[in-house]
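Long-time lurker. I teach an intro course on protein structure, and each term I like to show students one example going from raw sequence to a predicted 3D structure in token notation. This year I'd like something fresh instead of my usual example. Would anyone be willing to generate the tokens for the chain below so I can use it in lecture? Attribution to the forum is fine with me.
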Amino acid sequence: MKLSGGFSELLPLEEGTEPDVKALVDRIQPWTDLVFDVFGPQRVMFGSDWPVCNVGGGGNAVSWGRWKRVVEEILDRRGLSQAEREGVWAGVAVKAYGVEI
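-- Reply from a regular --
Happy to contribute to a lecture. Here you go:
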């Protein structure tokens, strides 16, 4: 399961402002909790959310950092181990896509 697409479900963000990451995660946590509960962290991979992350504003220059901070907060709230976090950020995708790094 790819963890992606969250910004399309949130209120628009304005360029030049920094969103309340904890409030953003509060809004999408019911969905992300379901994803992790059903698939488990060993089957969830990070998705860059591009270009969807630009739907809410900010453009490429700021949207990547926003989405990264949101995902970090999601992983913090789930209390994932370091190995599980590394899996979400890269390991699950490496295994799923058969990529050698």
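Some talking points for your students: The beta strands are 2-3, 45-46. Residues 1 and 39 are 7 Å apart (CA to CA).
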